[in-house]
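Subject: Interface between my chains keeps coming out wrong

I've been trying for a while to get a sensible model of this assembly. When I model each chain on its own everything looks fine, but I need the whole thing in one frame so I can look at the contacts. Pasting all components below, labels as-is. Any help appreciated, I'm running out of ideas.
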Amino acid sequence: MKKKSDILLDANYRYYFDRAMYVNRHAKKAFSVEYVDDHAEEQLRQRIQENTGGAKWKFYFNSPPSDGVQHELERELEKVHA
Amino acid sequence: MPERTIEDRLREEYFDLLPEIRGVAAQLEAELRFRTLPVLHSLRPYEQLIFKSRIKESESALGSLQRRQEGRVFDPQQIYSVTQLPDLAAVRVLVFSGEKLIEVDNILRESDAFRDWVSDPILYSQSSLSVSKYCGYCRDVSVRVRGEYQVVPLLIANFWDVEHAAMYKPTGWAKGIEHDPVMKELRAAVESSLASFEQGFEKFVRSNSAPSSTPSN
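Reply #2:
Try treating it as a single job with all components included. I did that and got this:
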């Protein structure tokens, strides 16, 4: 059985240490470590495959981030991963 | 003038509370030493009972609070306080041997000073072993700052000290090392072998020591 982190790494997600998230800048999707820990592998695979359009960042968190947090993360991810 | 950030406000709160944090650390250590005096006086020559207190530094406090947020970002719509942390003032009670550790843990848990403290054991990495940890208030000193004490096997505590200083303190030096699977396995192996050494030592002493080697009270 594959580890959850391997599933994400295989799908081109990279671990972003500063924010403890797995990030794929092309898909514009990010998974918090808490979300990864608390969800089953199958759910994780479904979320990885989920088509979000790719225009806006999608954050998979256990508690959905507020607008302020989302804005801060988007700003940082665009800068760091530019 | 730039707007004050959440971090600025938390730093200000921390330094306002610092005298109380120091007071809690001093009170907690004194209380722990006092309650465990009977154990201290009954130690065998090879046994040890050591107290180490520490005050969380301001940046560590901010980092701890931030790590509790998903995404490690403070939400501007939330109110944060460093008093949310259970370990601004903390004392580690380091004990060798395991037999004495259980005695110390029981005495402290049953004492009036710590009766209402909350137990929150630390699990060793990838193992079923755990270390006792409690948090609560020293109400004579502060009703805002919580204290924490741990009762830890001496060998494990010394390993944690070195490991913590090497892996986490130099900022950016070993970022993310706590998630590295190889390091996780190595850490678990060290903890497990230290616990085995302690158990083996005690077993040897029990089966080889003469009855007269036990100190009389």
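Reply #3:
Confirming on my end. The CA atoms of residues 65 and 71 of chain B lie 12 Å apart.
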